Predict the structure.
Amino acid sequence: MSAPAAHDRAHAAPLGERAGGLLSRLDTQPRVRDFLRRAVETGRASHAYLFVGAPGSGKLDAAWALAQALLCEEGGCGACDSCVRVARRTHPDVHVYAPESATGYLVAQVRELLEDVALAPIRARRKVYIVDRAEQLRASSANALLKTLEEPPANVVFILLGTSTDALLPTIVSRCQCVPFRMLSSERAVGAVAHATGLPEARCRTALAVAGSPARAAEFLKSAERQEARRQMLRAVDALLRADEADILLSARDLMGVIKAPLADVKSTQQAVLDQNADYLSRGALKQLEERNKRELTARERSGIMEALASVRSLLRDVLTDVEGVGGEPVNEDFSETVGRLARATTVAGAVRALAAVDAAERRIARNVTPQLAVEVMLFDIRKALLCR
Ligand SMILES: [Zn+2]
């Protein structure tokens, strides 16, 4: 009859004030945090949320935080096995979906989601489905999802993420609890990263420019490999002024190796999860998990490349600021010599055209051009742009 003491103590402290929980770290969106905390505390979580806000407002971070709070027996303690798994993105009952084609969600993705919804949770008492960029659900997929949103199984929570309610089917919006996210001022975002990591603001500003949201920036600052990928990318741009074609091709190839380096970790985590679950999952469920793992690797590789491109964009903005002579601290303080060198070699028009080359590379990758080719073309175009006077 005696309940474990630790369990009681945990319940005595207000939720979210306990160490480590992701929900308590959502200090950049205090209203959202308090709202979600109350929902979890009172056991009145909705079965479908729609997080609405501009890119970078932290919707995905909040979705992970809510997933952690919903699956943890203590409402998101941050320390238990379940919380650790959610934080490492290896909890088998949290499913994250993002559009897998340039034009949006694939019909097969939504079909897989709907099949999965019907299955029992693997570890927790419920399952969480995070649907990123929900506006990219095409009409037929959105309608299929709608039926499930109308009558969801009791143990399922959907978290849809979108930039505005206008871009979504009104029938979807009306079935979800809408949670608006505010755009953060850059100073508050930098402050949040500095608070989370204890690192100097200059490094936090750089990380934000590369990674987007405060939580992703904090993660970036913990990954030596991702920071090395940024540095190598910027060194490649620095070397452009004196590079010949062979140099550029070589550096694009080397860059791909560095960008893919963090994937080794993801692969070994995925294998560990597969091994742990091999005994009690059906063959069909295992196959589904394997396919999801493959897609996760592709998505991670893509986000590594997007991060590398964001690094270049940030560096070129520093160059543009320098050429324009408007002053101000460069975002890439550790590359201030590179910024100066490139600024002396180019003009305002050159820097603007170089920035356009980064946008073009992003578009090519979205259209499934191989990343290495997209980076090669981008480096050639940046060199041409910077040197054209
Ligand atoms: Zn927990």
Notes: The pocket of zinc ion is lined by residues 72, 74, 76-77, 80, 82-83 (CB under 6 Å). The longest strand covers residues 156-162.
